């Protein structure tokens, strides 16, 4: 083994000399040409150093017989395979542990000591997983290849995302409350759907591609003709979405100049259910002082959210999203005045002023009068009355949540802008792209990875995995879980 280490040491020196020679070479060249070739030489130097390090670690003295997971092994023989590092793929020879007394799977003690993940370094796994949390899988592989001049296979990338994603939610749940928090706790909840793959689409993609005469373009056209997509009926979902529920929790601090914040904003989300998010959100709120601090809960008009709020946040000061209510007022105003008219803008402005001043009953009475003034018969009158009735019932049901005057006097939030932005960043940018169809299992893992990333905790997450957990890659990516969306009325 010492001979191998000496050989790798000479290879390092030779590679380093090549890089120095390139820097000192004569002849005119552009800086772009110099820098591009230098980067390749530095990657080669990194590979040589990695080989030297691996050879040194493999040659360390070890006991011949050892126990692992309740089984006894004996070191016998060697195995050589490629290891994917941040500098490129390198060859790695190390001893094999074989079970004593019976056959079975071999053990690679050196790989376990080094924290290798099924032939990849943890740095490669984390780098690719982070890229996949930011962009499409194919784009992530291309970006990684641009800087590292190699890339794992698409299947290996999926295995990395699945393995690291398994650790994302436990990491978020074990985090302690942040230091230097504010004295006012704010909780917001919203949701957005991400397109899921149906069973029909899954079966179609699993079928082998049949070779037909002509070009690939002709083949695609023929398949579209043989298997045309059914036209959607009225009310059918356009993208077969599964709802992801997002919670935002942060604090505000009172200062002589006014309220400051948001402070220590954290995003959490899940595709599981509304109640699953509320259970998680309640634990996070308790860490941040719920029950001891003034707490404000904001959401849109979803009845399911407000039902769970009464269960998990009964002591919070509730508020219906201001912009959600203003949209309702515009919808009601269009039943009274022509769309885009000066009268409509003035009417909506008047009702908004009343809400800010706390005269909610005046707004409700205005809507009742408008509803009564529209005849039951006549062109479009039925639709106008139904729309006004829906807005009126919505405001009456949420009358206790229209607390804009009280919250504004305390300089507190009355809108769910933080939740709206979180929904867009967590789901819209990454999970709701053109042509995307997600499996339920992988979308949940990727959603948690984006929570780690957008919370600014990726460095802590990487250190957590490097020092506490062992990232084990499955032999195959997790199986696809299909989803069939149900028709559901919007809030």
The main sheet comes to: 5 strands, mixed
Apparent shape: elongated
Record field, number of beta strands: 8
Distance between the termini: 69 Å
**In sequence order, what are the helices and strands, one letter per element?**
HHEEEHHHHEHHEEHEHEHHHHHHHH
Unreliable residue runs: none
Radius of gyration from CA coordinates: 30 Å
Query: What is the percent of helical residues?
Result: 40-55%
- On the 0 to 100 scale, the average pLDDT is 90
Beta-strand percentage range: 15-25%
Structural class by secondary-structure content: alpha/beta
- Main sheet strand line-up: 6-5-4-7-8
Total helices: the number is 18
Oligomeric state of this protein: single chain
Description:
This protein is an alpha/beta fold. Among the domains are: about 1-115, no CATH class; about 325-400, no CATH class. It is built from 18 helices and eight strands. Helix 13 (about 360-375) packs antiparallel against helix 14. The mean pLDDT is about 90.
